[in-house]
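ESCALATION

Customer reports they have been waiting on this structure for their group meeting. Please prioritize. Original submission:
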Amino acid sequence: MLALRLARGTHPLVLLRRLLVAAASAGVGFLLLCTLGHAVAHPGGSVLRLLWCAVPLAATVHFAVAVARTDPSTRPRPGLSAVGLGPGRLTAIAAASTAVACTLGSTVALLVYLHLRGDITGLPFDGAAAGLLAADQPLPLAAALTLLTVLPLTASAAAGLALRPRKEPPRPRGTERPPASVPSGLPWGITFITAGLAVETFASRGNPGSAIPMPGHPDSSPAGVLAGWVLTAFGLAVAGPALTHLCGRLLQTARPGAARLLAGRVLMEEARRIGRPLGVVCAVASATIAAATLYGDEAGPHPFGPLTGLGAALVTGCTVATLLTAALESKHARGETTEALLRLGAPAKLLRASAALRAAAIVALFGPVTWGIAELAALPLTG
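Update from on-call: job pushed to the front of the queue and completed.
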């Protein structure tokens, strides 16, 4: 109840982010229900469809955690501990708010699914997708409800773990905060990327020159290729903070001016906060480029169906929204520094130039990395 009362008094933009989480949850719930309907109509060959659903589910959980981190109602503030709202209680509220948003989306997904099957009549488009959703087969309600609880439970648990109270080491008074350490995930990221490309190459042996079918045609789709893509994406997410930190260092080389120096320091300071979302966005972009290479005009029949398009839209939208949310969190985190610079007389033009330099440096470094990994991922599948 406290989480619902806090939601009523929040800013409209915060409510919009929560509604976006609910919308993404509705899309994932609909995909899970479609997988269940396919399993009922075709008992064999539905495991890989469920594996494909894990990709948008993970993207939605990542987005839900990012929204929970930027929720102002769950930030510790002076005086809240006196009324029983300490860090632990605020973490529980964040997890409850995430569960409420995801449950709302799952409920909408169930209603839409039943409506398109024709089980709920009296509204426009009832039964419009009866053939696609196996309306001639009874829907196991217990299995449907079990699948729909996966996302709310996973997202709320992930939000609770991400926002759990942590003990910070004491800092002597009158000293500055120590500089952020260099992220050390680059070797591990390269290892996972290499392993993912190797697994994909091994899984595609014996079938050169043919693209793997997408979820609309799952019977002959090798699960090893999907596992290779997942390992590659995880490697990019692990290496993202180190690459972002490298962007900051490169900006400060060769006698930098004020704008380059400020942009580089900000990237180095915020490398861990925005690096992982950047790595995930690069992974999605590389997968998109690889899919465009595999399924071009010369690859034969177009394999993308409506459910594949929905899953791709969910993954792309959630990853981009997560990156924008992390960037907003980073902006709020350095708000005091920005105000101090303005009080010291720094022109607003300098801050805008610094932001433009940060964006250009990120594109200049992550763009070739994304393109190269996409070409390497598509190479063994195109023969």
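Sent to customer with the following note: The mean pLDDT is 80.
Escalation resolved.
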